[in-house]
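Example with several molecule types.
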Amino acid sequence: MKHSITLDINGETYEVTVEADDLLVDVIRDHLDLTGTKKSCGSGECGSCTLLMDGAPVPSCLVLAIDAQGKQITTIEGLSKDGHLHPLQESFVEKGAIQCGFCTPGMILASKALLDENPNPNEEEIKTAISGNLCRCTGYKKIIEAIATVNK
Amino acid sequence: MPEFDYFEPKDLVEACGLLDANRGEASILAGGTDLLVKVKEELVEPRYVVNIKRIPGLSYITFDEEGLKIGALTLFRDIARSEILRDKYPALHLAAQKMGSPLIRNLATLGGNLSQSSPSADSAPPLLVYNAQVKLVSSSGERKVPLEDFFLGPGENASTDNEILTEVQVPEPGSQTKSTFMKLSRRKGMDLSIVNAAAFIKPDSSDGACKDIKIALGAVAPVPMRAKKAEQALIGKKLDPASVRKAALIAQEEVSPISDVRASAEYRLDMVRVLTEKVILELL
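Resulting structure tokens for the full complex:
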């Protein structure tokens, strides 16, 4: 059964028609062409589908699109403004925290949520904040550095 | 994903009505971190999904002289941050910090964790040692079930398919009591427990012997369980490494771990002794 829903993504309103079982990650990627959010494990364990819902990082592969109505959603596309990268994005680039880039949108959004609450996290707090995001390339060291030094 | 019809009841009456109308074919959706994984893997095939998150008044942590009440829709993130829990129910506070990942904790609910009734549920051992009970609501009314009677088998519990778990109630822990939780897993983050354990002790004020002790273990039996024989071995005794070691060996006789992808039965059995000792000695 099709449902017409409204999604608030990066400050814009999108009207989409979805099935009840359509996942938020798929609607964002396939219906709305916002492919910065990635798909990998499909079970909420890898973090590549991370986006912010009302400021909190969640695995969008475990959210039904219809259930995301009424939430403020931020994807990685929502971070840069007028062509300028968000300081976190700049920091990741400068510190070499990006190799293949697949984990990066999720890592950045998870760390944005951390810094929004705790602008000066210690290393343990950073590690905990990104403990739901896997990276196969970097070994995490540069990612942690990028997050730790972004406000410095 | 397999198709289903979807409902967002605005209150419990409506939700219970939907479960009544579709008995055996409806699944309750709270956080979705277990249900949607199971639906994707076709382990569960609901014809109807009833999203209870739009029902107000089911997310809260309150504490008064009667004890603690946690609404079933309370997120693990909020349990992990609760100062009331940090101070009065530290085992549950710790367990919530170690469950899943920060992303999962932003969606997962306490009611969902208990309702999924995994033997390794991280919220279970703490709530067992705290003598929790759950409130189940249906169109016929409500009833309370002690948590130790709630879990019936892996993924099975005492609620019927038209009941909704709405609240967890925990008695006041008493003064001078101590409790803690430990989780053994392959990774520090985002992993299911190989073995988890909680302990609650009440020392006797006169001689420091153990007036009351509760020990709960998870992932080592078909259900999260209390190690009651181990507890009996310590009541009235002085708690020291020797007495705790004896009790931990008894705990090994009470469990029935299996081998799975995370660990062998033999390793789990060994870790029952290790964790039982650690979780009690930590409190001394």
